[in-house]
Amino acid sequence: MSVRELVVLGTASQVPTRHRNHNGYLLRWDGEGLLFDPGEGTQRQMLRAGVAAHDLHRICVTHFHGDHSLGLAGVIQRINLDRVPHEVTAHYPRSGQRFFDRLRYATAYRETVALTEAPVDADGVLATGASYTLEARLLSHPVESYGYRLVEPDGRRMLPALLAERGIRGPDVGRLQREGSVGGVTLDEVSEVRRGQRFAFVMDTRLCDGVHALAEGCDMLVIESTFLDEDERLALDHGHLTAGQAGRAAADAGVRHLVLTHFSQRYSEPAEFERQARAAGFDGELTVAHDLIRVPLPKRG
């Protein structure tokens, strides 16, 4: 059975707290694992969450501030220590290549895995496979930052009443799905489009075109909400979002499940982030993230 869920490894922003580790998010998507923004302590958080190096297939770094990337050294060395048998690909802003190189070779270790470097330098598609297309969009932050989006190809949902009406049953159903027609009955006549799932990961940024493009129509949006609305000027100055801005962007984009994260250490009451996101108009499913939770993607509509 395919599994699609978000494993939250850390939810702090610049300064970790007693209860919040630096960033780290693993998306399980069927048989693949995509690790986003491994901050300091990610390797230990993986252990606590029951995540192994063998679960990783892609590492996606939004930008090279420490709370989003200092865990790279440990994660990469663990991938090599455990001799992960499959290819692991790393995506990150090309402008930060020198930082990636320093983190990849921060200390001496034996390389046993061919880590593929696939830096990002423009909006567009990064990878295409059978179960998803991975895209990147430029965000607005003091250093170059990209958000990421997965889009599953649309499929078809078979309609039993129409199949029965046209006498299509048993093995012929599978044949119809494979070949597109059976006995003069076409696939379009007995099925409807099943929209593919969509997931977006948006970290440090002001509101910008990239935020809206990434969030559009998502089943799950993981987005930073570093500040509360009363500190909007601080958010703008430092290149971040408030809870209300995140909620409004999600509402405008038709997001089904909003996950708020990347909280400033100045706040002690997480419920206020949800209150402000709701007040901004978001009425879908909402999670104020905390470390080591698992959040399943919504079931297909």
Describe the structure.
This protein is α/β, with parallel strands linked by helices. The chain has helices at 42-49, 66-69, 72-81, 97-104, 160-165, 171-179, 209-215, 232-238, 243-253, 271-279; strands spanning 4-10, 24-29, 32-36, 58-60, 88-91, 115-117, 124-128, 133-138, 146-151, 155-158, 181-182, 185-186, 191-194, 198-202, 220-224, 257-261, 285-288, 294-296. The strands form four sheets. Strands 6-5-4-3-2-1-18 form a seven-stranded mixed sheet. Helix 3 (72-81) packs across helix 4 (97-104). The radius of gyration is 21 Å and the shape is globular. It starts with a strand and ends in a 5-residue tail after the last strand.
